[in-house]
Amino acid sequence: VVAFAIGNTLSSQVGSALALATLTLSQSVLAFALRSDRPIYKKGFLNNKYSLISLGISVLLTVLVVATPIRAVFGLAVIGSGLGWHMVWLALVPFLVIEAVKIIKEFLNK
Predict the structure, then answer these.
(1) Whole-number Å distance between alpha carbons of 29 and 98
(2) pLDDT digit string, tens, across residues 24-49
(3) Run of H or E residues at 61
(4) How far apart, in whole angstroms, are the C-alpha atoms of residue 3 and residue 84?
(5) How many CB atoms lie within 10 A of CB 108?
(6) Residue (of 16, 22, 82, 74) closest to 4 by Cα position
(7) What does the alpha-carbon distance between residue 44 and residue 68 come to, in Å, rounded to a whole number?
(8) What is the pTM for the complete model shown?
């Protein structure tokens, strides 16, 4: 909703494109937070090559759909680089919240 609202300041088409890209990236990154009850700094980020490959493919496909002429097939508007940064930080928020909750739970259970 936040991504749509930010993009909607330019047009509803940009808002929709930004929301789609943010949700896609967010779900890809969220997979890392949901694979364990332990914080990622203890579980390790680089120890599962298949998760990293799937993240890379997902990010690549998202970029192809949003940032290349392929977007016309999906009827998506152009997302400028300024809005692209909003997409990245908004996609990371759920991951960071879940990781913070894991760290707090771990601290309280000591």
Answers:
(1) 11
(2) 999 988 888 888 888 887 877 777 88
(3) helix 49-67
(4) 10
(5) 7
(6) 16
(7) 33
(8) 0.80
